[in-house]
Amino acid sequence: MSVRVIPLRAGSCLNLAAITERGSPWRVQAYPAGFTLILHPTRGPVLFDTGYGAGVVAAMRRWPGVIYGLITPVQFGAHDSAREQLRVLGFPPEEVRHVIVSHLHADHVGGLRDFPQATFHLDRRAWEPLRALRGVRAVRRAFMPELLPDDFEDRCTWLDFAAAGDDLHPFTQVADVFGDGLLRAVPVPGHAPGMIALLAQEDAGLTVLAADAAWSARAARHDRPVHPLARVAFADPAQERRSGAALRAFLHANPAARVHVSHDTPEGWP
Ligand SMILES: [Zn+2]
Fold first, then answer.
1. Distance 49 CA to ligand 1 centre (A)
2. Which member of 5, 211, 222, 233 has the lowest number of beta carbons within 10 Å of its beta carbon?
3. Ligand 1 midpoint to CA 237 (Å)
């Protein structure tokens, strides 16, 4: 058994290239808000994140969301949402029963409200530090609570982590999302609390969905540090460094694995 991974994007954000990778020019660049459709043999269409959604654009017109829009301007059109794109691909939103959430930044959960039948799978450690935050304190963490469905917490299934085998070294914890070995989550916290990467077992081999553990596929494989200014945005900069190093070591030990990061063109795709 295997899954099929289809990388998509729901909108993009503008950022300075020099911020995302030290030594790059001080030029504004558009970065895709990537998410992934995963075709699972028994669970149907599964999402890993959702990218932006219409709610993000609306929230950015109001205080305090307007702060988010000033720091990270968003490009998002009427047909860009995960919901619309899945509909075009032949998957009505009601058919999506599972969304695996890498972390709770607005550009990853902006479409959660569009999937009313979905259970959300995430690391409890992603939710606990943010759940009580509102207003400016939330936006400062790139968290917009109004994007989450009202029954968000009731629909959450916390990932159940256990000790990882040697094959996942240097990762020490793993959560097998559906218990079939096809989608395994490993912790890569630091950029945001409780962030996870997802190891997807495809026909051709392993695909690592690394979320925001690196800004580019190149940076996921090689040590390309962000600008020091970008580090202030990390929830835990030291932890972010350790997670990046663990990801690089894992990819080095598994050279055949493909890596997709949220804000770059996925490896192996045009
Ligand atoms: Zn993020």
1. 11
2. 222
3. 13
Residue 249 lies in a domain: yes
Residue 15 is predicted with a pLDDT of 83
Higher pLDDT, 228 or 49: 49
Tens digits of residue pLDDT in 244-268: 999 999 999 999 999 999 998 887 7
Looking at the chain, how many residues does it have? 270
215 within domain boundaries:
yes
d(CA 25, ligand 1 centre) in Å: 22
Answer whether residue 265 is part of any domain: no
CATH code of the domain in which 235 resides: 3.60.15.10
What is the total count of domains within the chain? 1
Give the range of the structural domain holding residue 154, as residue numbers without chain letter: 4-260
150 CA to centre of own chain: 21
- Do 83 and 111 meet the contact criterion of CB atoms below 8 Å apart? yes
What is the whole-number distance in angstroms between the Cα of residue 70 and the centre of ligand 1?
A: 16
CA distances from 87 to 37, 67, 77, 250 (A): 12, 32, 16, 35
